[in-house]
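User: I'm putting together notes for a lab meeting next week and I want to include a structural view of one of the chains we've been expressing. I don't have a solved structure, so I'd like a prediction I can at least talk through. The sequence is below, exactly as it appears in our construct file.
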Amino acid sequence: MLNKEIRLVISGTYSTGKTTTATALSIATGIPLINALSAREILTDLYPGRRFQDMNATELMALGLKRFEERVREEAILYLQHTNFISDGSVLNEWIYGTVRMKVGLNPGSGFIHRAAKAILGLPGRGFYKKYMNAYGQVARLHSQQWYTDVVHLPVEFPMSADGHRPVSERYRTLSDKEIREGFLSIGKTPELVSGSQVERLRKIINLYDLPVVVPIDEAVTQAEEQIRTNREAVSKRIIEQYKEPSLKEKIKFISEF
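Assistant: Thanks for the context. Below is the predicted structure for the 258-residue chain, given as structure tokens.
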């Protein structure tokens, strides 16, 4: 039994283990997890066969809007059904990911020539995109302030996973980590910094918020890791099935469109 309402964000940048932490925490405590589609899952529906590093600004905005819609809908459903929830990331995290792309490049995981071309091509539209991200930020910050009660932030503790599914750079990861924490502070939410192994993280979070334990922590972590592995394998299979090597003409188009 919870002593108070909690709508807890497990925050962090790419490859910090937040999906595993959030999933395991939900299993361990019985608090429902926001079940929104991941960016990779959305990509297979919005732009089948497209890789993140080949997306242009319009496509990235569409992906961000769909991700926002997914999160807000699922949060509303769980709030009405349970009041409490655990969220793997947040609308504020997603907004920060976009603002950092404006600083380090639209496709930070791409090669130098690709990034240089995009930087030059994007100059005429920077004013519009900045205004768009500012407007998006107003909504994301207000939503985060009103809907989330607490924030746990997972710091960057290890190198980015080399599984090929993180279309960003270490510079992007470092900057977004810093700006996510600052973003929550700016809306009056002080993130609790939690590090360590998955088991250590869960113990710390459960103690911090006096959460119930309905499944042993070790078992919850094992279940979460298996659940995530199965899901990622299914999504990877779908991506592989959809993907076809772009022609030279298509590669030039990817580079020449902002």
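A couple of points you could mention at the meeting. The longest strand covers residues 7-11. The beta strands are 7-11, 85-88, 150-153, 192-193.

User: Perfect, that's what I needed.
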